[in-house]
Design a protein that fits this description.
The chain is 42% helix and 15% strand. By secondary structure, it is α+β, with helices and mostly antiparallel strands.
């Protein structure tokens, strides 16, 4: 893993100092070594920076890496799993290599095949920048599903900069950090800010599966992959046996690829199906002698993963360590997490993930995880809700309104840390809408109209416009296929951002076999009937694992680390948010009285608004953080006079008003 950065544009002697600061900011992404390279021409200069965490070619993988034949450079963050295969092809074509790294394969592959063919051939997680000295242009690219981050910005004077983090870009004096209310509106809906948006109007996030070509005169953006352009392959056979056989063939190859490293690679084992499948694959291929598995156990955060993981490890003969977390300083951990944000990030699972990776990193540098399996194989409860949507949409609107009123008064209970009532209301938010609008609302914490009511200068239309523009022309085979691809595009990047943020905070690499190209193509091509069946999620995965695991594991529901956000917002976290609202610390960001109304209802157990309140707390903490965001607060305060009169409250909200 690495941290990459660079500045391109008219000659400026301060660029090297800025890149040195950017490298230092990204130290945890690459604690082993760092360097800077410069390319100088009369009209423009390029300064590249790189921080490296050594996992492959420990001696020869130093970056920025120069191509001796062309004088070009590359900085690269990630791993290319099929680099050995590509290197063999390039060597057969006459290319000469001076290192054993996957970085050099990218650079040689670009000059041999061109960018388009290179991106079709590589399989891995990556964000990279290539300086083409022959054509005097800079090329940026990001992997298809968004495992590695990449941000960029520019100014009207022809300056351009990029980095692995927004925090690094803030060290450049000319970077404009005016807030982007479209990005914040999307954050309140999706918990994260989807590409190309960020929290800043003039800083962009390169989309997964996209590349950017920059020269002294223009920027050209291209998309080389999205789940909406991945064709649905026609399968020759659809028997359960043939699908299970193909599942293991592809997963085994992907797991083998994830083991390629010059440092030991471990396994993160939970009591769930995803990491269990990886453990079985390791056992099938005889890798257990070389692998150690780790399970982190938290008190008070979801189910105890220790019991189930011990059963799995014992059955497979896996070397296994359970690492318990005791006496957790939640306040301290939360403060550290919030202060690390370079933009709002609303997945509360980041907190236990940071602690988990920090603990495992004491024992190993890299590990394999099961991320991506739920998105590919129908692992979320929303997949089982699709038949109910079809049924509800057969009834007239009057019945919909009646059911929604009834849902507001039913007793509540918690399932895996999530309110049953909240789940029901989220489902009903989509009733009366056709897909993909219904699915968009299922994925959202705040619906578009709620965003407009809670966020000053919020844009209630931005989510629908963003999704419709990306899905234009897409024709799904059925509703489950549509849901799979929407989750891949609009939910999975948030999961991967959590993994990247949490793991990089401890200089720890996470590898994900389920997100290799062969597995993504396989998962998207599966018939919907084997993803969700008889209201059971990940049906085909359970069939594949049958006979390898005890029934108690196969029949278990997804667990994971679920922080008690509802209790937090009723207690100390809610008190922090209330103080910020009453002190007008964020009065230029949200309608304070309406948020206080949500908080009052939550405390009185009228409704569970914990997810909504958590997102407001995250955004409020971010914008109130004086260490890195003073300029943003000043710009928000300039807008205050434009909002002396609040918009009328939507009567459908039914919020308690607190003066």
């Amino acid at each position: 893993m690495s941290g990459i950065c660079g500045i391109f544009g008219p000659p400026d002697p301060s660029n090297r100092q800025s890149v040195e600061a950017m490298n230092l900011e990204q130290f945890l992404r690459g604690p082993d070594e760092g360097d800077i390279s410069q390319v100088k021409h009369d009209m423009y200069h390029l300064t590249l920076g790189h921080r490296r965490m050594s996992v492959l070619d420990l001696q020869g993988g130093k970056q920025p890496l120069m191509d001796f034949e062309t004088g070009s450079f590359i900085v690269f963050d990630g791993e290319i799993y099929n680099y050995r295969e590509l290197r063999d092809i390039l060597e057969a074509a006459g290319c000469i290599f001076y290192t054993k790294s996957d970085t050099e394969v990218l650079l040689k592959g670009y000059f041999k095949w061109g960018l388009e063919i290179l991106l079709r051939r590589v399989d891995g997680m990556y964000a990279f920048a290539i300086w083409d000295e022959m054509q005097h242009r800079l090329l940026l690219a990001r992997d298809p599903v968004g495992q590695k981050p990449l941000y960029y910005t520019g100014d009207p004077n022809g300056k351009f900069a990029f980095a692995s983090s927004i925090a690094a870009l803030k060290y450049i004096p000319w970077v404009d950090t005016s807030p982007d209310m479209d990005g914040l509106s999307l954050f309140l809906s999706l918990r994260t800010i989807p590409a190309p948006y960020t929290a800043y109007k003039h800083v962009k996030r390169l989309e997964p599966g996209a590349c950017l070509i920059v020269d002294s005169e223009s920027q050209k953006h291209r998309t080389f992959w999205t789940p909406f352009k991945e064709p649905t392959l026609v399968r020759k056979t659809c028997t359960t046996e043939s699908i299970v056989e193909e599942y293991w063939d592809k997963l085994d190859q992907s797991v083998r690829d994830c083991l390629i490293a010059d440092v030991p690679v471990s396994l993160m084992l939970s009591s769930g199906l995803d990491s269990s499948a990886i453990a079985i694959s390791l056992a099938r291929q005889g890798f257990l002698e070389d692998i150690e598995a780790y399970t982190v156990v938290f008190q008070g955060m979801g189910r105890n993963e220790g019991y189930g993981s011990r059963i799995i490890a014992k059955k497979l003969g896996l070397k296994h360590k359970v690492l318990p977390f005791k006496n957790i300083n939640i306040a301290g951990e939360m403060a550290a997490m919030m202060s690390s944000f370079d933009e709002p990030f609303g997945d509360a699972g980041l907190l236990p993930s940071r602690m988990m990776y920090r603990e495992i990193a004491k024992h190993t540098t890299a590990a394999i995880g099961g991320d991506g399996c739920d998105e590919l194989f129908g692992g979320y409860s929303t997949f089982t809700a699709i038949p109910f949507l079809r049924m509800m949409n057969l009834f007239p609107g009057g019945i919909h309104r009646l059911v929604k009123r009834f849902a507001r008064i039913i007793p509540d209970s918690m399932i895996k840390g999530v309110s049953r009532k909240t789940q029901a209301e989220r489902f009903l938010n989509g009733v009366g809408f056709g897909p993909p609008e219904a699915f968009m609302r299922w994925l959202s914490v705040y619906t578009p109209d709620q965003v407009g009511n809670i966020l000053l200068d919020g844009n209630p239309d931005v989510l629908e416009k963003h999704i419709s523009s990306e899905m234009r022309g897409f024709r799904p085979s059925d509703l489950t296929d549509l849901m799979s691809r929407m989750v891949m595009r609009y939910f999975l990047p948030g999961v991967l951002e959590r993994v990247d943020r949490a793991s990089m905070s401890s200089s720890f690499e996470v590898r994900t076999p389920f997100l290799q190209r062969r597995m993504v193509q396989f998962g998207l091509a599966l018939p919907s009937s084997v993803k969700s069946k008889n209201f059971q999620t990940k049906w085909i995965n359970r069939q594949a694992l049958s006979g390898h695991l005890p029934e108690s594991i196969l029949k278990s529901r997804p667990g994971g680390f679920q922080p008690p956000v509802s209790a937090w917002m009723s207690g100390p976290s809610g008190a922090v948010l209330e103080k910020m609202l009453r002190d007008s610390a964020i009065g230029d960001l949200v309608h304070s009285r309406r948020v206080l109304g949500l908080l009052a209802d939550h405390r009185a157990k009228v409704a569970d608004h914990s997810q909504k309140l958590w997102l407001i707390l995250v955004a409020a903490s971010f914008f109130a953080n004086e260490t890195g965001n003073t300029r943003i607060l000043q710009k928000l305060m300039e807008k205050r006079n434009n909002h002396s009169t609040e918009k009328k409250m939507n009567p459908e909200w039914g919020l308690s008003m607190v003066e």
